[in-house]
Task: inverse folding
């Protein structure tokens, strides 16, 4: 396995080498080389923006499949709260959950429960005097990786708590091993995921040494089978435990309201997150808590979801209203903060992964910066992407790093061709002295 | 390149021009990242240049932000033509501001600009002549 695992992959046969993905990548991680998109692994944050932008569906996310369940004695499905938004609010959450059991899982354990525990842990964390403000939620792994590569100065602002899915996985894995007497390696714990970033987080955990999650299955991948199962599950089936507080995490702002974070800010969509973090780095934003999510609308807008994000949002609001009424009627209480901190806290620190640096040697880097600025001044500044780099600035960077040449720019190439053509015309007009008529004196 | 050769960046600033506010500081920040200066040091440089840049845009008519980046340090000089500061000691106090209401409504002019610059810099000096302008020099070491 290479240094970085990424779940976002390219299907080369489908890639036409267009510039849609390179221009939308928030970390300028993609170049077109040899007519195909190529991802620079160190820069990729697995946000899935390229999956969304690719009209040819050449970008995909590697996920696990239901076939992988065979390798385990006991399989647990961990559905993301966003899964409920894929169904009409008339389909009760318990029906969606029981439908998952029809797909071959032995148990369903809601990530929303983990979200409730993390909400409580966040409330506790924000009260701590050593908590660096603004405290930035670390629930969205693409945002955490964005901070690692683009805003290393904000790493200490990330809340050192595990994401809800990891908490849910730790909880279900440890209790089932004990109760059922199964060896940990025989339990398959599968996240039903709206996004590729989570997949990466399991293979290459951000906080924990090793993730408790076995793998991830994209919502879109099982949606068809789930629809069929939903139709046959009895409506009064009983599979549900989580409350609206946890399920609300599917939407942008859900985490903030669940943690009752007072002076807070909610940002969604990766480019917006990047812009606001820039402001945070300048010390401009005086808030206690920032909820930042890579997808538009929050997890319901994940690239592995099926429904349009606005439809999903509408459905989720309807569902939450219903759930709140039911929670109140039944006196249902959200899962409580777990005093066992090993459930919610990071096992290791998050390291910076700066990507901007042009050279390890500061003198060389300074020289390259100067060369880059000179090169940039000569480029047309159209940011067309035809050279295979996302914009002229990135091309100047690629040139100075020896990964591209000036004539990769079609405008510079045209200039060169024109100059050469003129020179050739000039040369063609010249005759050898033997033919040249000279004026005799 | 010897240690005394640096990269010199010059940016013209225009009073009241909020459209471009912060652009000079972001460019300086990007270049520092490309050079590989430590991220906490970059943060201090970015905050001070941003505050200084905003001061010119909020209070002055025009100005120049000059950043000289050397391998071991960054020097910022921000000189403006403007009303100047009548009482520098007062201006250096946290929370003191002469920014008018319409600027405060935009979230600026909280009276933290100068104290922030001092907090972020290793060397700081300010000269101001009432009715003429202000010149701020900031030095931040990279290690």
Result:
């Amino acid at each position: 396995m290479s240094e970085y695992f990424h779940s976002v992959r390219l299907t080369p046969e489908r890639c036409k080498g267009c510039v849609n993905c390179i221009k939308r990548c928030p970390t300028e991680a993609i170049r077109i080389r040899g007519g195909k998109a190529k991802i620079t692994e160190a820069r990729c944050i697995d946000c899935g923006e390229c999956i969304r932008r690719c009209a040819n569906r050449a970008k995909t996310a590697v996920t696990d499949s239901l076939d992988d369940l065979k390798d385990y004695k006991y399989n647990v499905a961990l559905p993301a709260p966003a899964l409920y938004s894929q169904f009409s609010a008339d389909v009760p959450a318990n029906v969606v959950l029981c439908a998952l059991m029809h797909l071959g899982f032995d148990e369903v354990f809601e990530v929303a429960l983990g979200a409730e525990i993390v909400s409580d842990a966040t409330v506790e964390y924000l009260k701590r005097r050593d908590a660096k403000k603004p405290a930035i939620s670390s629930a969205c792994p693409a945002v955490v990786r964005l901070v690692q590569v683009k805003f290393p100065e904000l790493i200490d602002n990330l809340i050192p708590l595990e994401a809800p899915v990891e908490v849910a996985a730790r909880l279900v894995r440890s209790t089932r091993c004990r109760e059922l007497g199964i060896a940990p390696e025989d339990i398959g714990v599968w996240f039903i995921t709206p996004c590729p970033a989570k997949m990466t987080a399991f293979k290459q955990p951000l906080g924990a040494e090793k993730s408790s999650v076995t793998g991830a299955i994209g919502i879109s991948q099982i949606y068809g089978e789930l629809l069929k199962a939903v139709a046959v599950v009895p409506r009064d089936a009983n599979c549900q435990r989580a409350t609206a507080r946890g399920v609300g995490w599917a939407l942008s702002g859900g985490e903030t309201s669940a943690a009752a974070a007072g002076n807070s800010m909610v940002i969604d969509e990766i480019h917006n997150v990047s812009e606001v973090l820039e402001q945070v780095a300048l010390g401009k934003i005086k808030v206690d808590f920032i909820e930042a999510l890579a997808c538009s609308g929050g997890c319901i807008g994940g690239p592995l979801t099926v429904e349009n994000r606005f439809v999903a949002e509408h459905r989720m609001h309807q569902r939450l209203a219903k759930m709140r009424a039911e929670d109140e009627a039944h006196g249902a209480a959200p899962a409580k903060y777990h005093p066992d901190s090993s459930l919610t806290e990071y096992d290791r620190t998050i390291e910076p992964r700066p990507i901007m640096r042009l050279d390890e040697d500061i003198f060389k880097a300074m020289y390259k910066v100067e060369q880059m600025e000179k090169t940039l001044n000569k480029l047309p500044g159209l940011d067309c992407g035809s050279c295979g780099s996302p914009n002229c600035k990135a091309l100047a960077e690629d040139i100075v790093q020896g990964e591209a040449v000036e004539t990769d720019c079609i405008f510079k190439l045209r200039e060169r061709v024109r100059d050469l053509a003129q020179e050739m015309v000039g040369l063609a007009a010249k005759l050898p002295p033997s033919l040249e008529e000279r004026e005799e004196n | 390149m010897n240690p005394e050769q640096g990269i010199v960046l010059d940016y013209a600033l225009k009073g009241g021009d909020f459209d471009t506010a912060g652009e000079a500081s972001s460019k300086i920040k990007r270049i520092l990242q490309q050079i590989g200066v430590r991220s906490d040091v970059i943060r201090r440089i970015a905050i001070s240049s941003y505050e200084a840049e905003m001061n010119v845009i909020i209070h002055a008519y025009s100005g120049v932000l000059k950043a000289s980046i050397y391998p071991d340090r960054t020097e910022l000089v921000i000189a403006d033509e403007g009303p100047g500061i009548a009482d520098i000691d007062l201006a250096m106090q946290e929370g003191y501001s002469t920014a008018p209401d319409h600027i405060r409504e935009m979230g600026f002019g909280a009276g933290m600009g100068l104290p922030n610059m001092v907090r972020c810099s290793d060397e700081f000096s300010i000269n101001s002549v009432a009715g003429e302008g202000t010149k701020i020099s900031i030095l931040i070491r990279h290690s």
Remarks:
- The first strand of chain B starts at residue 7 and ends at 14.
- The mean pLDDT of chain B is 87.
